[in-house]
Amino acid sequence: MTRMRAIAGRSSVVALLVGMLALIAGIGTSAAPASAHSAGKAVVLVRDFTLSPVKIPAAPAKATKATTAKGKAAATGTAAAATDGWQATVAIADFDSGAPLQGTAVTVGIADPNSTAPATKFVDLEPTSLIGQYQATVGSVAPGPARFELRVRTVPGSPPVQPYDRSYPVTLAAGQPVHVVTASGGGGGGSSLPMILSVAAVVLVGAMLYGLFSVRRRTAVPAATKSSGSPVRSAPAK
Questions:
Q1: CA distance 33 to 43
Q2: Quick one: CATH architecture of 38-188?
Q3: CA distance linking residue 125 with residue 158, whole number of Å
Q4: Over the Cα atoms of the chain, what is R_g?
């Protein structure tokens, strides 16, 4: 009877262990689509999106002719002042591996912050010397509420990426950079959920195995007893 109870106890522990591992595997699987490739296309992770104030050179003024006091024509012109603009710097990576993405089309548009209508004009950002970083002057926007739209697309002949479209409402201050996105999670240095689940599984397995073998040690060798239930004691040697 005692042996049967021990077997039943071990079976219950094993069943519980299998169930918990299945639960952890299910949680890990449900979290996978956010970090894995989708339909063979890399999922875009925006690691940095910064707007920096810059001066946009004005177009050259057209020369005009004026008559001097001596009746001679002289070329004159009014130099236009440079305007305040914004330079967009974007760094993108593969969400799954954390590797910088290159060979992609990255564009930024300026939209009306008081409307949900998409931007009508986008500026192409050019790759910088850093792999996965793109940069360009996107235009002039007055300080205050603003809205910028970021798009990422696949360039023909390059590894495909999932189309990325997102609108970012911001508040601009004259002469001050705006960090729209900074160090998003994911990839090689991002989402730690799979690792946490793996560690939890290891700890759970260790705890279950410890409990299983503890039950075996307690039930494997029961003490010999008399019919009255008292332990049998051997007679001392003469």
A1: 10
A2: Sandwich (2.60)
A3: 17
A4: 35
Per the DSSP assignment, residues forming a β-bridge with 229 are none
**Beta carbons within 8 Å of 191's beta carbon, 6+ residues apart:** 31, 34, 35, 185
Q: Give residue for tokens 């010397």.
A: 129
Per-residue pLDDT of 87-133, as tens digits, reads 999 999 999 999 999 999 999 999 999 999 999 899 999 999 999 99
- For residue 158, the Cα-to-chain-centroid distance in whole angstroms is 22
DSSP-derived pairing of the beta strands 133-139 and 144-154: unpaired
Q: Which parts of the chain register pLDDT below 70?
A: 1-38, 59-82, 183-238
Amino acid at the residue 29: T
Tokens 């002057």 belong to residue: 137
Bridge partners of residue 121, in order along the sequence:
none
Reduced to 3 states (helix: H, G, I; strand: E, B; else coil), residue 66 is: strand
Q: Enter the tokens of residue 51.
A: 């707007």
Query: In whole angstroms, what is the distance from residue 36 CA to residue 41 CA?
Result: 9
The dihedrals phi and psi of 136, each to the nearest 5 degrees, come to -175, 160
**CB-based contacts of 143: which residues, under 8 Å, 6+ apart?**
172, 173, 174
CB 34 within 8 A of CB 184: no
Amino acid 30: pLDDT: 44
